[in-house]
Amino acid sequence: MKRTNIILLAVLAALTVTSVLYAGIVNSRHDLSSTSTVWSGLGLTGEPCEFCHTPHGASGTQPLWNHEQSGAANFTMYTGYAMQHASPTANSYKADGDATLCLSCHDGTIAVADYGGWRSDAGGTGAESGGVMGSTTFSSSSFLVVDFNMTNDHPVGFLYEGSVSGDLELREPTDASVMAVLNANGNVDCGGCHDVHNGSGYVKFLNANPTGSGICLSCHLK
Questions:
Q1: Whether pTM exceeds 0.85
Q2: Comparing C-alpha atoms, which of 115, 113, 94 is closest to residue 103?
Q3: pLDDT of the residue at 158
Q4: Is the distance from CB of 109 to CB of 184 less than 8 angstroms?
Q5: DSSP string, 9-42
């Protein structure tokens, strides 16, 4: 009987870990659907994937993109300490397109309901109005607005290898921990730290457990 109880506890523990590590997008803060338990009452589509993706009639941007993209002409990037070898310039975030997709909502000017041709205005008064990040609708998540001034945010859209030269506090681009963070072109981008689909289930859509600054130490030698 005791052995059976131990086995049952082990199974329950495994199921709990699985539910944490593979939380998924449904009912996460990226689930903007009408069935979401996070953003209830928005009156948007019941399809959580539709805000970003569509199987048909997608825009030219991969992957099957369905959301209006930021039309901002300039983003002021962080160019401070340790960026002397690879200082990103305005619009450098467009280098690979990954950050552009994130900024579709997080630049604070594009309404979350600007998808699939609905094109509600920035105030969110269109056919499926959702407001913009930082508006009254999303006041509880206003800290997620990147805005055009990115000087207080980790830089994106730059080649990591170029920033390492002469910097003794950054790991080599060939280190396994660094390679796991960089995108296919060797650039630092939003996806290096965050998983938009919440695959890990960690806070703020982080790719890994933030305990002990593990993500930071993937690249930084401290």
A1: no
A2: 94
A3: 82
A4: no
A5: HHHHHHHHHHHHHT--STTSTT--STT-SSSTT-
The whole-angstrom separation of Cα 106 and Cα 172 is 31
Go through the chain and tell me how many residues it has. 222
Please say if the pLDDT value at position 120 is more than 70: no
- How far apart (Å, rounded) are the C-alpha atoms in residues 92 and 77? 8
Nearest-5° angle of CA 51, CA 54, CA 59? Answer: 95
What whole-number distance in Å separates Cα of residue 79 and Cα of residue 146? Answer: 16
> In this structure, are residues 38 and 126 in contact, taking their beta carbons and an 8 Å threshold?
no
pLDDT at 92: 65
Residue type at position 222 = K
Q: Which has more pLDDT, 169 or 74? A: 169
CA distances from 155 to 63, 150, 200, 206 (A): 23, 8, 23, 16
pLDDT at 86 over 70: no
- For the cut 50, the answer to whether the pLDDT of residue 5 exceeds it is no
pLDDT of residue 217: 93
For Cα atoms 143, 217, 165, give the angle at the middle one, nearest 5 degrees.
105
